[in-house]
Amino acid sequence: xxxxxxxxxxxxxxxxxxxxxxxxxxxxxxxxxxxxxxxxxxxxxxxxxxxxxxxxxxxxxxxxxxxxxxxxxxxxxxxxxxxxxxxxxxxxxxxxxxxxxxxxxxxxxxxxxxxxxxxxxxxxxxxxxxxxxxxxxxxxxxxxxxxxxxxxxxxxxxxxxxxxxxxxxxxxxxxxxxxxxxxxxxxxxxxxxxxxxxxxxxxxxxxxxxxxxxxxxxxxxxxxxxxxxxxxxxxxxxxxxxxxxxxxxxxxxxxxxxxxxxxxxxxxxxxxxxxxxxxxxxxxxxxxxxxxxxxxxxxxxxxxxxxxxxxxxxxxxxxxxxxxxxxxxxxxxxxxxxxxxxxxxxxxxxxxxxxxxxxxxxxxxxxxxxxxxxx
Length: 375
Prior knowledge:
14 helices; 7-stranded mixed beta sheet; 6-stranded parallel beta sheet; 3 domains; single chain; disordered N terminus
């Protein structure tokens, strides 16, 4: 019979040493198993967990945090956590991280670089183990300071200039190209673009896709039809539509590159009595439950937001396990979902591609993924 480990006076809770003694392993093995670090044979893992259950052992996270100078907390820093897109990203990440034993600390900065700075300072003070983030238009040196402090970081959606971090994003160029090509097939030749700030990688890439589709169709690119607006608010799309309606030659179709701006654009069109899609077709970027409920229902380029959160969280866990591994950049596909707002005769159906279309699409996707990996 195994000899019972004597506890210090006054200590009644079971210890790591007792779990190790009962399981017949080292205390280091117990720590690896119970912290989820991996690298332990399945048989040893089973013995450790069985011993911990028999002893009703509960790890002391506070003591562990003091030893490693990190908490089992992950910070999530996003520009608008009420935005359905970011809410879905957070939901996906939350599931993965909580299953791995991490708590979440949400931080919202409202596209304000000053708030972004203060939130990063707070997250560092909280000694978070890692951060998932979508940086502002002008990411500060604070992110580099986070990396220099040994905190793992993964960028989601937006590609931060000058930061060597893991990344998960979507094929923004390809998505915009699909939207414009769909409108071209419906006969539109003056297609407006309501875009965000040019300092954001997402909006720059979507404009590249928009312009590529027009060039492929041998159509000129009219700067009069491109409006850069506030990416995060309805008012941005609303004001952009008013500007486009004042153009010398009005567009017959619009690509609006964010959920919030699309709602503002639709409001402006309704208030000015412009019938959608009879007088002006509209395609949004990003699918939400409200897109189906609008009348007419909104055609969109859908982004796999929840999947982005899941993959971002997994990249973060991989980085925590192996801080020195090479940087990874993952680009997920976007998808055109056709509804009534663009004038299609097949509402609520999906857009199908010919073999030639698919070949061109694959070439663009490869170029886009190569570009992202080099950034």
